[in-house]
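Annex B. Sample input.
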Amino acid sequence: MPATIDRISVQLAATPPFDFQQSLSFLGEFSPMQGEHAIANHTLTRAIMVQGQPLGFVVADGGMVDQPDITCAIHSAAPLDATTKAAAIDRISFHLSLSDDLQPLYKVAETDPPFHAVVQRRYGLHQVKFPTPFENACWAVLTQRNPMPVARKMKDKLVAAYGGTVEVEGRQYAAFPEAHQIPADADELERQIGNSQKAGYLAAVASAFQQVGENWLRTGDYDEVAAWLQNIRGIGAWSAKFVLIRGLGRLDRTSPDDELLRAASKVYREAITPDRLVSLAQPYGSMQGYWSFYLRNAN
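Annex B, continued. Sample output.
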């Protein structure tokens, strides 16, 4: 097992308000990442893959919600060069959505009493994303018509075969592989996970993600990115939306689904129809996705 031979400490910029405890509470209940991280003493510890190198990190906030003071210790089993360090800082910050500006959302909420009550409970909550959109896409494939425990075992097999581990404070943490580390060979993947259909889908996802830059996925035209995702074998409309939101933080749009309609009905204390949901979302403009994220996590 690789032991840490390099450790650096960095300061991470966070756009206030940022409540790290809200992030930790969310992660504690987010089933796709259960068992992959440690939450203790107001810190988050986990591993990520950066440019083919598994890195561990420990994030802590010693500040206040309106004046965050985010520190991060990055652990590596190999020396960290400047390029890898910069990529790691970007990856960790993006994972925790530290740069998201919540003020436009909160401003509109002042005119929306039912939702304003949600904001007061979730003040400073920034969306926590999958560490990479590629991991999110793989998870979407694995969970399609598949029980969660079975999907988890398949994911663990992918990590064991193609990912990496790093030691942080005496414990080993596993990092999910990057797209270039998973073979675009369905037969090879089937031998690892034991499912031919999902192996084919995973091979298609790995091949597709090797052909585009993540910056385009994060910032490119929304409709073009959505279309690109849906063009990948195994990624349908629902999975594309999942990756846009939870892997890329593309929260500028929302669309009705049963879960969101139930959440909105509970918050607004009325039976919310799809048309009514669109009407309620409209004032939030480019923050509609964040509005729906808060609705889904209202309690």
